[in-house]
Amino acid sequence: MSETDLLTLQVTHIRTLQQRYEQALAECGYDSLLISSGAAPLRYGDDQAFEFQGYGPFLHWTGLTGQEHSWLLIRPGQAPVLWLYQPVDFWHANLELPEEPWHQAVELRFSEQREAPSMARTGQLAVIGDPAFLGEVPGEHNPEALRQALDETRVRKTPYEIACLARANELAVAGHAAARDTFLAGGSEFDINLAYQQATRQPEAEAPYHSIIGVNEHAGTLHYQYYDTAAPAQARSLLIDAGVRFRGYCSDITRTTPGVGEGRFAALVQGLERLQHRLCDMVAPGVDYVAIHRKTHEGIAALLSAAGLVSGLDDQALVEQGVTRAFFPHGIGHFLGVQVHDVVGERQPSPEDAPFLRLNRTLEAGMVVTIEPGLYFIPSLLEPLLDGPLGRHLDRDMIDELRGCGGIRIEDNVVVTEAGSRNLTREAGG
């Protein structure tokens, strides 16, 4: 998609949000809404702040992730008013805002003050944002019913949002290719992270989340957060879970690469890849997302049996007796948008057999989800199984051999369409 087409879609996106927000305000009994961008709090006992990426509803309208102390006013029948904090400051640079068509859809103002703007008060005003930055702003702060209604406006993405998510996938796919090549060339986790950032042209502080880069057994820690600066003597596996933020929207992609000579592990990666493709093909309107999660466990059971990791139990028993949960402990995915784990995925508690599932809704056109099956060799989960009555069905020697590879996860970003789905990650060449 051309830049011109993207910018045109953004104007339509803002008009759509105006309609959705006006409806939410009317249903909840408010006449206007003030949204705070928020700001990064200072670290305790320090004059340095945490990294800042903005409050979800503010990003939903503007995409301005690093814009602190700014405010957006929404009123029915009137153009939104956006106050951007632009102080006179020789310590820091202000955000440079390129001239774009969406500026004509809002009333854009600049302020040297961090506080909420002074404005005439008419009717019922709602104010949403981090309570730490709302202070004494007049109006009702963070009313729950309205917040829930506004969260729901983010569930079905506009064409502009989908275009941004597609671009975020394209950028991240280039980073994943560079990461894989660096791993295969003998790079450390630190080297792999630098290669990813170099290819995506995005510092990690601006990325949607801290990249998970695990070599060998580190791949078995689901959110492994450290980067070894020295490469291991034998590089057996790489798991990288990393994304890119584009105009506020996130990609969230995971790939696993076997090391040279790791035939058994490579076969498992190929098996999980085939399963992941089948699960992505299940995404369609009217499909219960929990059903995709449960189908994943059936697929993991078949893969464990085919690989010889488990024997003497049929696939149904492997699922029902919790064996698959020891190898695949997390949920199959989540909503994706201006937050990596986007809002209102759980309208009710997750089922007992999927306690960590972040999405349990029926899929609808416009939703964007991740599909991320995994198969891991995590000692704290497998040891109780091996030492228990089911241990005789597991091949301990094979599991011990594969522990050093850590685990496998393969994750794509998928749009639910009217006719089925679009896999943004595979479209981008991932």
Automatic annotation (TrEMBL):
Name of the protein this chain belongs to: Xaa-Pro dipeptidase
Molecular functions (GO terms): proline dipeptidase activity
Keyword terms: Dipeptidase, Hydrolase, Manganese, Metal-binding, Metalloprotease, Protease
Cofactor binding summary note: Binds 2 manganese ions per subunit.
InterPro entries linked: Creatin/AminoP/Spt16_N (IPR029149), Creatinase/aminopeptidase-like (IPR036005), PepQ_N (IPR048819), Pept_M24 (IPR000994), Peptidase_M24B_aminopep-P_CS (IPR001131), X-Pro_dipept-like (IPR052433), X_Pro_dipept (IPR022846)
Keyword Zinc-finger set for record: no
Class of this enzyme: hydrolase
Role of this protein: Splits dipeptides with a prolyl residue in the C-terminal position.
Residues at which Mn(2+) 2 binds: D241, D252, E411
Positions of the Xaa-Pro dipeptidase N-terminal domain: 12-147
Cofactor dependence: Mn(2+)
Domain Peptidase M24 intervals: 164-418
The reaction(s) this protein catalyses: Xaa-L-Pro dipeptide + H2O = an L-alpha-amino acid + L-proline
Keyword hit for Manganese: yes
Ligand binding (Mn(2+) 1): D252, H334, E372, E411
Family: Belongs to the peptidase M24B family. Bacterial-type prolidase subfamily.
Pfam families: PepQ_N, Peptidase_M24
Organism, as annotated: Marinobacter qingdaonensis
E.C. no: 3.4.13.9
Stored HAMAP family: X_Pro_dipeptid (MF_01279)
